[in-house]
Amino acid sequence: MESEKANYPVQRMARLLGVSRSGFYAWRRRCESASPARMAKRAELDAMVRRAYADSTGIYGAPRVQAVLARNGTGIDRKTVAASMRRQGLEGISPRRFRPVAPIGEVRVHSIPDLVARKWDTGELNAVWISDITYLRTGEGWVYLCAVRDACSRRVIGWAMDSAQTTSLVERALRMAYVLRGYDPAGVVFHADRGAQYTSSQLNAACSQLGIRQSVGRTGVCWDNAMQESFWSTLKTEFYDRRRWATRQEAIRETGCWIEEFYNRSRLHSALGYTTPIEHEQLLASNKAQPA
Q1: Distance CA 224, CA 79 (A)
Q2: pLDDT of residue 267
Q3: What is the DSSP letter of 229?
Q4: What is the pLDDT of residue 178?
Q5: Closest CA to 217 of 121, 108, 117, 104
Q6: pLDDT tens-digit profile of 151-197?
Q7: Residue 34 gets which letter from DSSP?
Q8: What is the pLDDT of residue 122?
Q9: Are 268 and 154 in contact (CB under 8 A)?
Q10: What angle do CA 171, 176, 179 make, to 5 degrees?
Q11: Contacts of 108 (CB under 8 A, 6+ apart)
Q12: pTM
């Protein structure tokens, strides 16, 4: 059939020989997949996929591996990348399903409004900063991490870690963000949950001094700070769950490196069109600098 398909229709030959057309085409695919040229091309693709996966420290799935290859000039569709990863036993890390706590009644603990209403990204840098505190286990006990991110670029612009989750921890992270930006943020909204550290008089005084407007979500409604919760999911799944630290200092050092060297500068963010947070900020700055 292969040698005569230029002279006779495949459908007619299949009928006369008592075989199926699908069987003929399946045979052809098997022959093509076993050809030396195709095998060499597949080996080359597998090597590129394996390299991109290894460069991500083993966390990227097919969408981000495809984005890495595209950035390097290799246009491969996502299904082909996924098939290559399956062949090689490579598997990305996916966050655990987020299960929100049941909302509880509203309790006015501080006269701070919700200035965000879940609309964190306004398309401009330094419009909304979001923050929260999480905890990491070490051989010496818990260490607490406070992070401040720009809701537009998703970049971590301020962070602090300590053995206690106090208002001073939040203030250190906030002041780091303020200094990093290098100028008056002109009334940026600083959004968080209603934790005692964020509704304290100490933080209110610090925000007033820096010209920052405070914003908090409703009590017990996790969705009001969901963007920051998403960041904790990324940090825990892709970084923390794969580490064991003997001391708090070791945890602080490695977490700082992950934030500054990997998350801000190397990790491709799907919400940013598979660019990094710093690349996204540079793109926004260049577009703003161009004349109208």
Answers
A1: 35
A2: 93
A3: H
A4: 93
A5: 117
A6: 999 999 999 999 999 999 999 999 999 999 876 666 899 999 888 99
A7: T
A8: 85
A9: no
A10: 125
A11: none
A12: 0.71
**Ramachandran angles phi, psi of 129, nearest 5°:** -110, 140
Place of tokens 């098997």: 30
The domains of the chain are located at 10-88, 128-289
Amino acid present at 286: S
Angle (CA) 8 11 15, round 5° = 105
Q: Which of these, 49, 101, 100, lies nearest to 79 by C-alpha position?
A: 49
Write out residues in the chain with pLDDT < 50, as ranges: 98, 100-110
Give the tokens for residue 208: 């007033």
Residue found by looking up tokens 């693709």 in the block: 45
Q: In whole angstroms, what is the distance from residue 225 CA to residue 103 CA?
A: 13
Q: In whole angstroms, what is the distance from residue 94 CA to residue 277 CA?
A: 20
Name the residue among 56, 189, 219 with its Cα closest to residue 119: 189
∠ CA 177-182-185, nearest 5°, is: 70
Assign domain 128-289 to its CATH superfamily: Ribonuclease H-like superfamily/Ribonuclease H (3.30.420.10)
Q: What is the pLDDT of residue 96?
A: 60
Residues in the chain: 292
Query: What tokens appear for 29 in the block?
Result: 């695919």
Give me the sign of the Cα torsion angle 232, 237, 243, 246.
positive
Which of these, 203, 122, 132, 212, lies nearest to 168 by C-alpha position?
203
Rounded to the nearest 5°, which phi and psi values hold at 141? 120, -170
